[in-house]
Amino acid sequence: MDFTIVIDSLPSLLKATGMTIFLAAISILIALVIGFLTAIIRILKIKVLNEIANVYVSLMRGTPLLVQIFVIYYGLPQIGIVLDPISSGILALSLNAGAYLSESFRASILAVDNGQMEASMSMGMTYTQALKRIILPQSLRIAIPTLSNSFIVLIKDTSLVSVITVTELLQMSSLIIAKTFEPLTIYLVAAAIYWILISFFTKLLDRLEIRSSKYLVR
Amino acid sequence: MIKVTGLVKNFGANEVLKGIDLSIDKSEVVVIMGPSGSGKSTLLRCLNFLEEPTEGLIQVGDYEVKAGGKIDRHRKKVIRELRKKTGFVFQSFNLFPHKKAIENVMEGPIAIHGKGPVEAKAIAVELLAKVGLADRADHYPAQLSGGQQQRVAIARSLALDPLVMLFDEPTSALDPELVREVLLVIKSLAEEGMTLVIVTHEMNFAKEVADRVVFMDEGIIVEQGTSQQIFENPKEDRTKQFLSKVEAIVAE
After folding, report:
1. Which residues 97-156 in chain A show a CB within 8 A of chain B?
2. What is the pLDDT of residues A6-52, one digit of tens each?
3. Which residues from B are below 8 Å from A when comparing CB atoms?
4. A108, A140 in Cβ contact below 8 A?
């Protein structure tokens, strides 16, 4: 292993890591909104929207992310929708993660003890009030571990966007390798960066989980 | 105050309530007893529309709801109004675990009556003191004993200033040594003149507080009367059988 190569390529790799973090962060935010709304639509069984939500979740979970990226980036221009690589990547990642997050949200809402809804209703709350004030705050805590899982997958999935020429961490690694012919070194450095990134993120969410569970401690 | 007319509740093919007529006066304390599966909890839950009755009419104060009506906005609203006037205490407490004791009690005044936090807190402080838990205001439910949790739950219901309090086996989930503290709180409500409907197996408690004991079996009211009439002089065979079984357990 040649450490000068590592040191020389590190600035470019770190800069590309910035793109990876950017893709992941924006996609997570959008996916959270999509996932939450989809879950609420499915829980409330809102007419028409519920059917759409079901098809959406089924499609996203039933097809490979790589195919979804290709459809958005190479397919949509044929019907006049042209998106740049970064927007295409963000769209694909957030649509995909949103479907998984909606399942997490939905399961966590259903996991809240039925007595909580009964107690809220017996006080005279509306269903929406009960959801907002009583059920959702509890379900979010339940959802954290599975959300955290989806976030980790999403961070790793940003690497797939390299195939549509977004210069994120993996794409940059390949570019450097094309010049240096050191695939082992460079890919290992890239792997290490992903690993550090995800470890940091996991720690953060673990802390959030502990903090949000403080009311359960006797 | 409360009037139930021709109440029928079916769960699928299973007829749990087979035509209940019951009226309860203001300040009356009614204890409902009967073997498990007799429909007593279902009756109580129908009073609060936690179960939708199949047939019949339920009146609480000025609100009346007919079973099987179209579920529209207006009906939902009447049911909500009716619920606001009927405090419900669950066997399993059902406190909101993410809220402190005092926040549990403040929830009704804030969410239902639209009170501000200062006013809601004043109400909650007073009610927690009333159930003897002024010093536990900042504890989360998980940090309280079962008896304390149930007392907070009672305070939470009282915070809505209900016309009537419904208790669904309020001490059945408690360790024996914690039963008394909850019963004492309920008794103090009776002494204040609150209208109470209590489903319970605590016979001695029923003797102490009940103005009227209603004995139910297999979805009907078998007989009702003062606690003396029911416990010492039951007329129906089913009542006698039930009482002898319960007494046998108490004697053990």
Report:
1. 113, 115-116, 118-119, 121-126, 129, 133-134, 137-138, 141
2. 898 999 999 999 999 999 999 999 999 999 999 999 999 999 999 99
3. 48, 50, 80-81, 83-84, 86, 88, 90, 92, 94-99, 107-108, 111-112, 140-143, 156-157, 160
4. yes
C-beta neighbour count of A192 within 10 angstroms: 12
CB spacing of A137 vs B98 below 8 angstroms: yes
List chain B residues with CB under 8 Å of A126: 80
Please state, in angstroms and rounded to a whole number, the distance separating the CA atoms of residues A108 and B122: 34
Range scoring the smallest mean pLDDT among A60-64, A148-152, A214-218: A214-218
Task: Report the SS3 class of residue B32.
Answer: strand
Closest CA to A169 of A196, A191, A199: A191
Please list the alpha-helical segments (H only) found in chain B: 40-47, 73-84, 101-107, 117-130, 146-158, 176-192, 203-209, 227-232, 237-251
Long-range contacts formed by A38-44: CB under 8 A, 24+ apart: A38/A98, A38/A99, A38/A102, A38/A105, A39/A101, A39/A102, A39/A103, A39/A105, A39/A106, A39/A109, A40/A105, A40/A131, A42/A102, A42/A106, A43/A106, A43/A109, A43/A110
Confidence band (pLDDT; 50, 70, 90) for A1? Answer: low
Q: Is B14 left (phi over 0), alpha (psi -120 to 50) or beta?
A: beta
Q: What pLDDT, in 10s, does the model give residues B206-249?
A: 999 999 999 999 999 999 999 999 999 999 999 999 988 887 77
Residues in A closer than 8 angstroms to B81, CB to CB, are 124
CA distance A130 to chain B (A): 9
- Tokens read off for B141: 């439910």
Contact B83 A137 (CB under 8 A): no
| Sequence-distant (≥ 6) Cβ neighbours of residue B40 within 8 angstroms | B32, B33, B34, B199, B216
